[in-house]
Amino acid sequence: MATRELRENEYLWDGLIYCAICKQPKQVDIQIPDSLKGVLKNSTDGINDCPCKCEIEAAAEEKRLKAIEEKRQIYVPVKKHRGFRFSVDDGQTPKTKLICERYVEKFFEMKKNGMGLLFYGDVGTGKTFYEYCIANELIDKGYSVKSTSLIKIIHEAQKFEGDFDEKMDKYLDNDLLIIDDIGTERDTGFANEYVYKFIDLCYSSDIPILASTNTTLDLMQGEINGEKETVNKRIYDRLLEKCYPVKLNKVKRRVENGSGNRKKMEEILGI
Fold first, then answer.
1. Which pLDDT does position 265 carry in this prediction?
2. How does pLDDT run across 185-198, given as a tens digit for each residue?
3. What string of DSSP letters covers 126-174?
4. Are 202 and 177 in contact (CB under 8 A)?
């Protein structure tokens, strides 16, 4: 007879409990001499539980997933961004989603060539969402991800101007780099110099970049009414050498979310 109640995916055969999935015994019948009975307190009935193949694999998988989540908290410091997944996409930009899913699928080759994506479009259209959908999928696959902004890079340049290149290794020694909101940094000679220097370091290191900006492609390419615009052009030229431009359409997700939240609050408040 079994020495405990049967759990899910278990069955009893010949007095021992078996796993219903791998069909391996989860108990072993130990022949204990009469002289030792009572001495071995936990084995007086002669039957001990032991892990089956499924339990061993499940424990290993649980350990692996725990390690991934611990790394995700480091790689993606903003808690909200950890929940950005293709599975919760609202379906309003199917082409963008397809490009992002294909990028994840082909990331080994993209990484080998240092190729990334540059998301551009209006504020609130989902650029950050798709960046972190990709990031979370790649973290699941064991890749390392680092995120920053050019405003932060400029601040670090002011602190570590003398050894700037060395201090940037923490960004470059990863499988993927995310740079949010390009174009919101200060437009000064010092800022432009070190932004370009950082982007050039990324280029030289062949690290794939996911970048986002509210700037139009015409402005990035420096063409306004047929004239060349030189400010920041070198920076965007460097990015566009390795990053495929992905335009986000005019779906204002942030506006829609705000409207939905207001309606929900009105229902709760009864107004």
1. 77
2. 877 889 989 999 99
3. SHHHHHHHHHHHHHHTT--EEEEEHHHHHHHHHHSGGGHHHHTHHHHSS
4. yes
